[in-house]
Amino acid sequence: MTPGLSQAERALLERAHRQRYQLARAPRFQPAPATTSSRTMAGPAAEKSSRRRLLTLAKPPFAVRVLNNMSYGATPASIAELNALGSSDAARLTAWVDRQLNPSAIDDSAVATRLANAGYTTLGKTLAQQWSEHVRADVEWAVRMRPGWEVQREAMVRAVFSKRQLFEVTTAFWHDHFNVMLGDYDTCPVYGHYDRDVIRANAFGNFRKMLEAVARSTAMQIYLDNRSNRRSGPNENFARELLELHTFGAENYLGFMDPFEVPPCPEDRNYPIGYTDIDVYETAAAFTGWTINNNHWEFTHASKDDGAFYYHADWHDSGPKFVLGTFIYPERPALQDGRDILDRIASHPRVAKFICRKLARRFIADEPPQALVDSAAAVFRTNWQHPEQIKRTLRHILLSDEAQHGWGRKTRRPFEAVAASLRALGCEWTYTFDENRSNDLNWRMGFTGHQPYDWPAPNGYPDVATAWSGASTFGMTWKLLNWLTETNNVAGDGKLLPILDLTRAGVPASQWTANRLVEFWCRRILGYMPKSQRVSALRAFLAQNGDPATYVIEDTNAWAQGDLKRHYNQERIRSMVSLILMSPEFLSR
């Protein structure tokens, strides 16, 4: 029921909407059919699907589980740091989460210095600078696209080296949630502004504030076409994705139906249970006139070509609207229609559940427990106007029993696997530009299907294991991980990663048996010893025809085809490390 309307006014409003949208024969609401579980599937679709099997893995130590789920991968240093934070697992987790949720108190200047020294030149440019120097200036293609490319490569540098690990993981989550394709010719030049001033600025803040920042951002205005949304030619792209992908989720979509017949939401009867196509149309009307300063021929104001957000009143549909069960009066102040809808959305109970399910999916499991989703949604909605709403919600999820005890219910996506590998192997090499190894990595990342921020559809990269379990994805990821262990460092002598140096520092030469080396590297990379079958296979590979318990492998790389225990020993150690990186233990979290 729309508040503040008499029965007569409501009747007029309903009649006007039915005439406008031809609702005389609109279908009535029907509850969605119950989802059929995968175990009861039948028919041709089921016959073509491989049956999922549960793989039981050894459970890692507490610190390893926490760091693999809440950062880009455990390292010896981060494990020691977490273990020093308290006298119990719960105390250590609480201290670590609270520290990570306050990123401004964590000195991350070393990463900023690393990026500057590596030739990143556009990350600090303002939107106006990006617009004038990379959009309007007559520059070659590589210069135009440089801001977005830097953000893309910066993501890997920060994932590997930043001390603000939880912030970096959460930033990637919001990039997927509010996806803008970086590789687009028009969005790439202003992507630095989107990453820094929209996503990063709000990653731990308030969801309602983030919604408006996204709606006003130049990159999103271009990507979802709201820059051309006007009353004389409405464009509903942004409005539809705002409701379907950014807030409600497709599970709360009711199709084309009479909005006055939508049932109330069980959690709060002041809100409708979901959104309809007409809500999309009305929302699109509310955001007409929200555009950018792009020197459009109809603009007459000064400074009309700086790429910033601009509200063009002449394009706005100022008529009455009925959205999500509430009436919006006509002829209101600038931006008010859209802002009222964002308020309505941000306070909706089903939006809270949708966002919290995605957060729990990122940090807990592909199918997170409903009880955790519900309790997190209560925190999210109670704090919908609080400046640290997201931070409070994350804290609730990350300190839950599920976060403390769960493991192995997520699969690392390719980018995450590469970042975790570089962290575990003590990487000091910086991913940059105009350097052969960096360009090689960039090229190979493309084959995995997980280049940061480059998913072409508005829904962002999927965050469930089934989406990344194809033969091509696994094959290209394994190939990339193996390449990391074998490739040379063009900036100096030796390999890109210090595998042999770490081996020499961690195991005395007199103890280089297959058993000892496998144990060292399993504990270095995984943080624990995997199941016995995996260990036996690794030992047999490294030992070849030598005794894994007693034969000492020499620190040489000589050719000895007639005696495989002496054949390319250093190559074999690197390959053994590569096999650990490809293992289910490493690729699970």
From TrEMBL:
Region feature Disordered, mapped onto this chain: 22-50
Domain of life: Bacteria
Entry protein name: DUF1800 domain-containing protein
Species annotation: Luteimonas kalidii
